[in-house]
Amino acid sequence: MDSLLHNIAVGMATAFTPSNIMYCALGVTIGNFVGVLPGIGALAAISMLFPLTFYLEPATALIFLGGIWYGTAYGGSTASILLNLPGTPSSAVTCLDGYPMARQGRAGVALYMTAVASFVGASLGIVLMMGLTMPLVALAKNFRSPEFFSLMILGLLSASMVGSGSPLRSVAMVVLGVLLGLVGTDMYTGDARYVFGIDRLSDGFSLVALAMGLFGVSEIVANASETHRADVGRAPRLREMIPSRAEVGQSVGPTLRGSVIGSFFGVMPGVGASVASFLSYSLERRIARDPSRFGNGAIEGVVAPEAANNAADQTAFIPTLALGIPGSATMALMLGVLLIHGITPGPQVIEQHPEVFWGLIFSFWLGNFLLLVLNIPLIGLWVRILAIPQNVLFPAVLVFMCIGVYTINFSTFEVALMIGIGIFGYVLRQLEFPLAPMLLGFVLGPLMEEHFRRAMILSRGSFDIFVTRPISLLFVICSLLAIAVGIRSIVRQRLAAA
Amino acid sequence: MTGGGAGPAPAPPGRERDPAVQNRVSNIAAAGVVGAIGLFAGIYALNGLELGQLRRMGPGYFPLVLSAMLVALAIAILVAPPAGRLRFQAGEALTILAIVASAGVFCLSIERLGLAPAVALTSLVFCAADRSMPWRQKLFITAILVVITVVVFNLLLGVQVKAVQWEF
Lengths: 498, 168
Fold this sequence. Notes:
The complex is a heterodimer. By secondary structure, chain A is mostly helical. Chain A has helices at 2-15, 18-36, 42-49, 58-83, 94-103, 107-140, 145-162, 167-181, 207-223, 245-267, 272-287, 300-315, 317-322, 329-340, 348-352, 354-386, 394-409, 412-430, 436-458, 465-468, 470-497; strands spanning 184-185, 192-193.
């Protein structure tokens, strides 16, 4: 109890400094804005702003990028409700009932209740983060290289099997990402690998150039031809946002159930906010007395998925910070922040740098409160911004990417590398390869190799070590289950194609 | 980006591609990319790196395992049901050209002319490819970008790049 109080004090002291409050507010506002824009996602925005964090303390950097991450979930629902265009994938399901509500003149109520449900979901997620992370860290202290290696395999496999698209292509991208992560100097022997005599590559590919190339460049290419103006109508007035007593009553249960579902799926690698929002929507429809209301503006169909995706966005930090295993590409970038500041991700981070973890937790409280308060007044501004054609934004995006990548080492090589990776990423995207698993593999690649080599030294070259240790065996079994899920989906596709 | 000319050109009559053929082409191309990278990485590891043994791995061991996995995955992709069809679009190719050209201009100008001119040139070259945007708007966006980047990077973050310089 004393240690919890101490941690809370450390967290508050870190989160509530003027500079961290400012970066938290800036992060959530940018996140909210990016979430509203249907073109740019959280991943692209975080990739682009990543270089700015080199100039910040690690805790401040995470507070800033974390704010963008969960801010997008609030903003994403605004575009879903007003435009029927999901600003983020996890808000897609909100369109189903949010947009009909807007067409019935109830946009104000939908937006208000969404903000409240998001806050409730996020709060449950943060409470779980505070409660679950320390026991998980205590468990992970017993982990040695075999456990870490099999856990990474499980994380990467489930991230590629559960996501949409072809599991084979996802796994191929993970492996390619791991391979790209090995470029540079071998840590054991000092030998240069895949460097081709280029000095700049001896430290490996830069995470920023890779992330911006893969997500920034391809976002520009995919969205730059969108020149249409969105027809958003007018922003709802404050008076129209007050829900009726019946609507509040209908929202309580779905919000709480959505929060629980979201918190659970957020922790699992690869599943995350999108799956959680879909599942909570379908649960509400299944248990509703009158399912025909769904799709026609049922408030339950708006609040449940929004509570779920916000809860999932928070709990996604649990495996990332407690174990050093990111469940998504965005979380991999969060680990990248730690790596760049010389902090090795893993269970030891929370003990060695309590200010980073607990500061982040308290910034979550602050950020979500700010979003709850800001979301409503900002809607008028977002509506006006949505009316601007998107192509106006892309010169700015490109310029920020170029400056961001250049300032890492003040080298134009990184800019060229980013563009080269961007073109490669574009080709891969055209061939239906998902790009997020590649980034996940890239971040985990060097750690995976290190743990694999250590495990093999420990076991004198025997693979038994992965199945004779109970926790590692559990991860291996779960990995096999993930592979089975992938094979089943391939067989189903095959049968459907036949 | 391409303005009025955006979108794929309609295929001339009689030359429309069969979707099934396109699906196969997509799979073959996907398998080709993955397989080629796998083979290249494998040959590099075999020739240029020490493999060692499983109990004491050299720098080439893990990359060789990965390259073998990539080749196996390429074969699996080849025989798996198609995941989609090729959909290269002329408009997107033009956007890529604009990105390459403007990033090239950025690389050439940032160290010689400084931040403000580099940003202006990058933005103008990128905007030039957008035929739907009037020039007044292009100049307006560029001017705003120059102001924002100089304020954010030079004044607020103190990045060590001069706003304007002349080094030839």
